[in-house]
Amino acid sequence: MTKTQAELSGLTFGCELEYEGIGKPYAARLIAEVTGGRVETENDGGVIRTSVRMRDGRVWSIVRDGSLHGTSCESVTPILTIEDLPMLEKVVAALRRGGAIANERTGLHIHVGMRNAEPVAVKNLVRTFYKQEELILKAAGTRENRLERYTRRTDHSFVERICRDRNPTWKKLNCDWFGTYKTYFLKYESHRYSALNLNNLWNDKGTVEFRFWEGTTDQKRVAANVLFCLLLVARAKDAKASSAKSQRPYNEASAKYDFRVFLLRLGANGPMFKSMRKILMANLPGSAAWKDGRHDRPRAETEVLTGTETNG
User: Which pTM value belongs to this model?
Assistant: First the structure.
């Protein structure tokens, strides 16, 4: 096991899978079939709550989402680890076969646990994400209308505040994020509508939320998106310091190369991440091997410069 794999195995995550075309009862049944769990329903004051309890006690929640249209639901995973990725892929595939549809209204929200992290790790994550934000959003294929409302870009003034904290504490991070210290806030508090949402660090979830992913019924894409989020958090926890507070300009001519280099710096090297690299770079223009688009050097030299194979 590589150092990167060991770091990822120590992280937890959860997903919110939003789909139209499939209702709560059928989605629950499909999830139960894949996970070996049992469907449970509860009448809570006239509201029917649907869940799937796995044999190990972990619970999937299947809920309504007001932003979706018609027959639809959101499937919320229990706390998962990287070892659960194959199961998650099977669930996504089963929902797709059952009629689940991803469109411009659906999203994929990925939560990664940081309850036991040091405050400096959150600072590292914010600075790293902010520096590469435009490149990340382009690789993710995030629609501009999503970024205008429910998935806003990281606020520059927040980044400036957090960068001034040489010795960050959880209280300082809270003040930096909200603009004032908040010990209580509503579920739909406005700061949550950010591409990188920190609200849940101060509630019972203890997670950072990556809200910029588009909904998808492609199980390999879901897995790739999860791996990328885990890599970001792993690097933030491992680094002693993070990169500069200024954003890196997005350059179409070198976008694919820039993102490949970024992935390698995150530790996304080797066969474990080959599919992830291919999926995430597919939306980007340019050459993965050459920043200037040149293709006239021998393949062996290309591999030395990029640090890995040149075809993904």
Answer: 0.92
